[in-house]
Amino acid sequence: MFARISTRRFGAIGAAVTAALCFALMIIFPEGCKKGAAEGLNLCLGVLVPSLFPFMAAAGLAVKLGLCRFGGSRLPLMPVMLLSLIGGYPVGAKAAAEMYRSGQLSESQAKTAAYCLVCAGPGFLLGFVGSMYGDETVGLIIYTAQAASVVLLTVGANILFRNNKSPAAAVRFTPLPFGTALVEAAHGAAVSMVGIGGLAVLFGAFGGILDIVIQNEEVRRYLLSSLEVCTAVKLLGGCPIEFCAFAVGFGGLCVHFQIFAALGELKINRLLFFFIRILQGLVTALLTHFGLRLFVRKTAVFSTAAVDSSGFFGGSALSGAALLTVAVCFLFTLRNQLRR
User: Global pTM?
Assistant: First the structure.
């Protein structure tokens, strides 16, 4: 009990210190904060709203109409997986939360979806990422690798934690009429977009401040890349493509907080979520490396910088086996965390 109270007190103190530090940086560097916030707003209006809002509304509509029940009892997460792979990062979390609230998913099933079904959409990877390298093939390879990592993580979680399954809530789900479902889905997507857009602007402001504070170019590049995935793709354009693949699989802290907001009252272990994102980034990068070796021979033509894909993993099967072994050991050590 004492340890738990101490941990909570330490967390509260840390949050207060972080908030005070953020306020101080905003006051000391107002121009950087203003510039970064403006870039975050442009990102929100130019990329996030057009690409996410329709998919989030469509996901909400599918849930409220009962279309996600077609996965059946054997594949309850399949509809959520499809929505996530098509819609992008927060869409899977939004669908999982909606299905959990309506009783179509149990708490453990919804948490598995929140942990594992996190990925970028094809529009972002084929359009934005593909354009960065001058060829949609790169975006397609990263998207395929990411989809494979999502499937592997989900299957692995279901196998390792099959004894920790709770039944779905005993709630009789009644599909809504189409008109009512459409209005509620649009309203829910709009509310979620406000939170997501606010986070994009906030992280943009912090990024603008860090761009001034941190003088070392390499440190600044990788720190800013960990905050927001669009920024990561831009900053890592001169690095091996696998670095970009890792950033896409990891998602960035801004995406993480977007997912937390979309989950609503569905509570998950955030530290576990963070480590799974790292694992997903590593698996995505590894599979991307093999995909580039199989389908792309000359990667330097995809960028004005010489993008080399050979120095990230070394191309050996031993590295792949080692990563998979570490992944399995990691999931086993976290089994008790998911039981809580």
Answer: 0.75
Instruction: Measure CA 39 to chain center.
Output: 21
**Chain centre distance of CA 155:** 18
Displacement of CA 338 from its chain's centroid (Å): 19
Residue 87 to residues 80, 92, 118, 220, 294, Cα–Cα distance (Å): 10, 8, 10, 30, 27
d(CA 216, CA 214): 6
Residues of the chain with pLDDT under 50: 1-3, 170, 299-340
Q: Which residues of 263-278 are buried (b: 16+ CB within 10 A; e: fewer)?
A: beebebbeeebebbbe
Please state at what angle helix 253-263 crosses helix 89-101, rounded to 10 degrees. 20
Q: How far is CA 18 from CA 99, 203, 268, 318, 330, in A?
A: 35, 14, 22, 42, 30
| Cβ 300 vs Cβ 308: under 8 Å | yes
